[in-house]
Amino acid sequence: MVKVGIVGATGYGGNELVRLLLNHQEAKIVWLSSRSYAKEQFSDIYGSYFNIVDDELISDNLEDYLDQVDVVFFATPHGVASKMITKEMLEKVKVIDLSADYRLDDQETYEQWYQCGHPSWNMMENAVFGLCEINRDQIKDARLLANPGCYPTCSSLSLYPLVKAGLIETDTIIIDALSGTSGAGRSAKIPNLFCEVNESVKAYGIANHRHTPEIEMILNGASGEKFNVTFTPHLIPINRGILTTSYATLKEGITQEDVARAYKMYDDEKFLRVLKDGVYPEIRNVRCSNYIDINFKIDPRCNRIIVVGAMDNLVKGAAGQAIQNMNIMYGLEESMGIDQAPNSL
């Protein structure tokens, strides 16, 4: 039995970790931590857990609690884990960080895009980027696991087979992404209030969204090339879910059959579903699940390909992928605890 602690348990990602881990056959939640709600009961924060998870939340002073667990999930904003994780901590427990603190492979890039210093860049030598379907071999032995971001997971895995097979001009990639409001976190922000979001759609982070270098890092790793993508996210008035629509120019002579053959690399991937011809992903068909739905369409008029991906940002984009990583790290069945059908209603 893997004993689990969760830091930042009262955020949306932390809440989703609790929901999923309660049904995990080989994991047990030992403690939940929250800086904002220390000493309150978890079920007082999320009433749906009344008589299910009534644990008192501990503070984020973790030294007294590390000996009780095997793995600690950090479901915290960027800049928190990098101040708390130490080599001494990693000697006691494995850590899965859901923030961006250990995702990027270049300190200057991190500080440029996140507009802050990194207090423990020396810890990067211990970090493994946890894109499950791509980095399984490295994940197995990780003690510090950087869980990928939601937008990079959906958009990069949608495009990865095309880039890996060398079918597209990599400097032509444009990604438009739509996300529900839970992607912005649970803290109170005026732009995320109901009256600000409802009955509207808006682009944000134009040409400077922090997930851009992460997407580029993943795709660069697939191609061996270095290139830039144009990435524009949009906020839509739903609670959860991401839809990405990506565009790229095909190399000369590439056919429908070539593209279909490239996506065969996902045939044995449980959570990556390449849909039937002419059927395109919808957020409702992946909601509350760890699945990503993917499909493509070639536009012969301009020799471009359009790739659509859909994913739940709180599951495959956060807590579900984090648990999938934990399963790989502990040699468990990869789908354990997250093998749930989508809730389309």
Describe the sheet with the most strands.
Answer: 7 strands, mixed
Q: Calculate the terminal CA-CA distance, rounded to whole Å.
A: 33 Å
* Number of continuous helical runs: 11
Q: What is the N-to-C succession of helices and strands? A: EHEHEHHEHEHEHEHEHEEHEEEH
**How many domains in all?**
2
Radius of gyration using CA atoms only: 20 Å
CATH topology of the largest domain: Dihydrodipicolinate Reductase, domain 2
Q: Unreliable segments (pLDDT under 50, ≥5 consecutive)?
A: none
**Structural class per helix/strand content?**
alpha/beta
Which CATH architecture of the largest domain?
2-Layer Sandwich
Strand order of the largest sheet: 8-9-7-10-13-12-11
User: What is the beta-strand fraction?
Assistant: 15-25%
Average pLDDT for all residues? 96
The CATH superfamily title of the largest domain:
Dihydrodipicolinate Reductase, domain 2
**Large-scale geometry:** globular
Helix % is 25-40%
Could you give the topology of this structure?
Elements: E1 2-7, H1 12-21, E2 27-33, H2 42-45, E3 71-74, H3 81-84, H4 87-92, E4 94-97, H5 107-114, E5 127-129, H6 132-139, E6 144-146, H7 150-164, E7 174-179, H8 194-197, E8 202-203, H9 212-223, E9 230-235, E10 242-249, H10 256-262, E11 272-274, E12 292-299, E13 304-311, H11 315-329
Parallel strand pairs: 1-2, 1-3, 3-4, 4-6, 5-6, 7-9, 11-12
Antiparallel strand pairs: 7-10, 8-9, 10-13, 12-13
Helix pairs in contact: 1-11, 7-9
